[in-house]
């Protein structure tokens, strides 16, 4: 499990640990890990030209002490001081081993720039000197390694309202922060490398499942299982306008853990579904529903509201989201909007949702009393009680027509097999992305190819 803590939680854990340790211990742990990560990033240290961008706080201190360690191993290290009070101990350590203070223009010939401008104490945005330095690095193609967080992003929300660093690597300490997992900031981090500095932290509200977590949650049949006990999913999706949505969502559902799929819809669409999947049967008892993908003119709001009020959990997708209202208890509903659909539900602009994904996913979950899976490069899943899961393993090739229908079918399958909406969403998003990675292999793919890769992605996960 990847946990992302708030700045307040990190500060509290840091204070508790610092009270037990000699002064400066945590910064030395951070700097040691940072120096090794930078050395690995460069593929060696000797002769490397390293420029440090140094702000006024401990983030700059980390960069200076790491710079001193790199200088001791033969790097040419230059500190660019962006504030009148750089960390005194760190600066002295660097100068004592042959590092020097230089100017922004030194960036032009650097192999790497360390962003020690601000960390968890920073406000969003970059001040003019820092912005000029960062732009110079970008202009000359010099990679930036962010110390703890890319400076300029909003650490606790993942928002990027102002200019910020775009890092090739982020080296963080103690735990992940929310900006490492939630877009748009997450996309500015590059790979995130976590250094353990011994912090003792409470469980985080924002978590990201890793392979072992998904494996532990996946419903695996056993010797006593039959097709009913494995779970039966009803699909109310597709229409004469969009018959493909029904076929694609069904393919996703069949590639999940359940034993049977029932399709409920117009005869012509049902025929198309059975042609692709002869094993699909008609109306009857189900343990969960997937409703909404490609319903078009078939949208029957009163019928959907009946199903939302019934006992079986529901995945509500695409057109079906129009049936959602903010009255009543919908804790067993998993809504799967993209940013535009979520914006319509909440009466705000799409761009606003894109810029503040965590905030609006949480707001919708609370307002409609549902679990919300907000699709995107990183998927944000918010439960009605404030818990958040983020999925980060997707490929941009997954942004293709029908991919959402696969996810809706798969998540329904996971719900029917007994997972909670939050777990079904997190496991579904993870496997959907894994299947996309398999079928894409770095090139184009299609929704059907993603759905067809799901069994293999699941096999690889479980083996
Ligand atoms: N917690 C831990 O466990 C550990 C933490 N460690 C490290 O400490 C870091 C946190 O250090 P920190 O608290 O000194 O804050 P930090 O982010 O360096 O600077 C804040 C100062 O910068 C300024 N400023 C604000 N916004 C700005 C902006 N946009 N652009 C420019 N300047 C801006 C503002 O001061 P001002 O200039 O306004 O007076 C503010 O006071 C943390 O990220 C990690 O790297 C590790 O050593 C080990 C363990
Ligand atoms: K930083």
TrEMBL record:
Pfam families listed in its UniProt record: Carb_kinase, YjeF_N
Keyword Phosphoprotein listed: no
Cofactor(s) it depends on: K(+); Mg(2+)
One annotated GO biological process: nicotinamide nucleotide metabolic process
Chain ranges of the YjeF N-terminal domain: 10-205
Entry-linked InterPro entries: CARKD, Nnr, Ribokinase-like, YjeF_N_dom, YjeF_N_dom_sf
EC number: 4.2.1.136, 5.1.99.6
Family: In the N-terminal section; belongs to the NnrE/AIBP family.
Gene3D superfamilies: 3.40.1190.20, YjeF N-terminal domain
Quaternary structure and interacting proteins, as annotated: Homotetramer.
Keywords in alphabetical order: ATP-binding, Isomerase, Kinase, Lyase, Metal-binding, Multifunctional enzyme, NAD, NADP, Nucleotide-binding, Potassium, Transferase
Protein name: Bifunctional NAD(P)H-hydrate repair enzyme
Keyword Amino-acid biosynthesis: no
YjeF C-terminal domain mapped to chain residues: 210-461
Superkingdom of origin organism: Bacteria
Molecular function per GO: ADP-dependent NAD(P)H-hydrate dehydratase activity; ATP binding; kinase activity; metal ion binding; NAD(P)HX epimerase activity
Residues the entry annotates as binding AMP: 375-379, 404
Residues reported in the UniProt entry to bind (6S)-NADPHX: 58-62, 119-125, 148, 245, 294, 338, 405
PROSITE patterns recorded: YJEF_C_3 (PS51383), YJEF_N (PS51385)
Annotated residues for binding of K(+): 59, 115, 151
Function: Catalyzes the dehydration of the S-form of NAD(P)HX at the expense of ADP, which is converted to AMP. Together with NAD(P)HX epimerase, which catalyzes the epimerization of the S- and R-forms, the enzyme allows the repair of both epimers of NAD(P)HX, a damaged form of NAD(P)H that is a result of enzymatic or heat-dependent hydration. Catalyzes the epimerization of the S- and R-forms of NAD(P)HX, a damaged form of NAD(P)H that is a result of enzymatic or heat-dependent hydration. This is a prerequisite for the S-specific NAD(P)H-hydrate dehydratase to allow the repair of both epimers of NAD(P)HX.
CDD domains: YXKO-related
Coiled-coil residues: none
Catalyses which reaction(s): (6S)-NADHX + ADP = AMP + phosphate + NADH + H(+); (6R)-NADPHX = (6S)-NADPHX; (6S)-NADPHX + ADP = AMP + phosphate + NADPH + H(+); (6R)-NADHX = (6S)-NADHX
């Amino acid at each position: 499990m990847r946990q992302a803590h708030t700045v307040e939680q990190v500060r509290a854990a840091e204070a508790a640990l610092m009270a037990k340790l000699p002064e400066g211990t945590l910064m030395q742990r951070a700097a040691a890990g940072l120096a090794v990560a930078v050395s690995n990033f460069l593929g060696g240290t000797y002769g490397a030209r390293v420029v440090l961008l140094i702000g006024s706080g401990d983030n700059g201190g980390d960069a200076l002490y790491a710079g001193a360690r790199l200088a001791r191993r033969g790097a040419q290290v230059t500190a660019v001081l962006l504030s009148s009070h750089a960390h005194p101990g760190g600066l002295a350590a660097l100068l004592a081993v042959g590092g020097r203070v230089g100017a922004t223009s030194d960036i032009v010939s650097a192999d790497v720039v360390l962003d020690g401008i601000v960390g968890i104490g920073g406000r969003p945005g970059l001040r003019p000197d820092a912005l000029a330095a960062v732009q110079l690095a970008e202009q000359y193609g010099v990679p930036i390694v962010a110390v703890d967080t890319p400076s300029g992003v909003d650490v606790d929300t993942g928002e990027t309202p102002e200019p910020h660093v775009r890092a090739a690597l982020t080296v963080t300490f103690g735990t992940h922060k929310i900006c490492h997992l939630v877009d748009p900031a997450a996309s500015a981090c590059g790979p995130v490398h976590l250094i353990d500095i011994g912090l003792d932290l409470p469980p985080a509200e924002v978590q990201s499942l890793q392979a072992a977590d998904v494996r532990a949650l996946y419903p695996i049949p056993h010797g006593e299982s039959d097709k009913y006990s494995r779970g039966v999913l009803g699909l109310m999706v597709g229409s004469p306008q969009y018959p493909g949505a029904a076929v694609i969502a069904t393919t996703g559902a069949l590639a999940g853990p359940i034993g049977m799929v029932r399709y409920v819809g117009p005869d012509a669409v049902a025929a198309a579904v059975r042609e692709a999947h002869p094993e699909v049967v008609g109306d009857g008892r189900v343990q969960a529903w997937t409703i909404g993908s490609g319903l078009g003119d078939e949208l029957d709001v009163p019928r959907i509201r009946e199903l939302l009020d019934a006992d079986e959990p529901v995945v509500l997708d695409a057109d079906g989201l129009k049936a959602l209202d903010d009255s009543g208890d919908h804790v067993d509903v998993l809504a799967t909007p993209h940013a535009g659909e979520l914006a319509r539900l909440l009466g705000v602009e799409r761009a606003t949702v894109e810029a503040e994904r965590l905030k609006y996913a949480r707001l919708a979950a609370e307002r409609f009393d549902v679990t919300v899976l907000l699709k995107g490069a990183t998927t944000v899943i918010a439960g009605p009680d404030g818990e958040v899961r983020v999925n980060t393993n997707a490929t941009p090739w997954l942004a293709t027509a029908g991919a959402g229908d696969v996810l809706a079918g798969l998540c329904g399958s996971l719900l029917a097999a007994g997972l909670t909406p939050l777990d079904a969403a997190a496991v579904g998003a993870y496997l959907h992305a894994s299947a996309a990675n398999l079928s894409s292999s770095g090139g184009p793919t299609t929704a059907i190819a993603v759905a067809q890769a799901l069994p293999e992605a699941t096999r690889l996960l479980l083996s």
